[in-house]
Amino acid sequence: xxxxxxxxxxxxxxxxxxxxxxxxxxxxxxxxxxxxxxxxxxxxxxxxxxxxxxxxxxxxxxxxxxxxxxxxxxxxxxxxxxxxxxxxxxxxxxxxxxxxxxxxxxxxxxxxxxxxxxxxxxxxxxxxxxxxxxxxxxxxxxxxxxxxxxxxxxxxxxxxxxxxxxxxxxxxxxxxxxxxxxxxxxxxxxxxxxxxxxxxxxxxxxxxxxxxxxx
Length: 215
Known about the structure:
Blueprint: H1 7-20, H2 24-57, E1 61-65, E2 85-91, E3 99-105, E4 110-116, H3 121-133, H4 135-147, E5 151-152, H5 171-174, E6 179-184, H6 191-213
Antiparallel strand pairs: 1-2, 2-3, 3-4, 4-6, 5-6
Helix pairs in contact: 1-2, 2-6, 4-6
């Protein structure tokens, strides 16, 4: 099984050079390096952490490594390859949507987090209902995440949706159309230990989201 101990260093080095040579010719000459130093260790990490995340969540979990090739069909940026390494684990709920845990290595970040990227309409309705009716518990979860150095993605809406007080105590949460939290792990992070620690600290949020999608 490949060793992922140097995955962060290798990924940052590879993608830093790729960013300066983002073309198919360079990629073809260095694909073996990607496959050996990045892809194989990343797949090994996914396999290693999947049962741990399943134990944490109590749900079936599937892991995925995002592809290196970019989908440029609808993008002005036509560079063909991603300059980051991202992986995701999906906890399979019995409700409206599944809940994610993710880990990413970019040129200027090493982060772990989770949540639901985009609420489908029934989930969004449940989210707003939960936030409004159980705001103290939910705000406490958010405060704990912030104390643990997590950052929540900025709300998608500029205003609190109609039907709710514009000065609602949880107005920022009501303005969300998805809920994702992440924290920076740092370049010297120990991949297995620090990623799992981040997922454990994040668990109260994902557990809340599971309740929402299964309501």
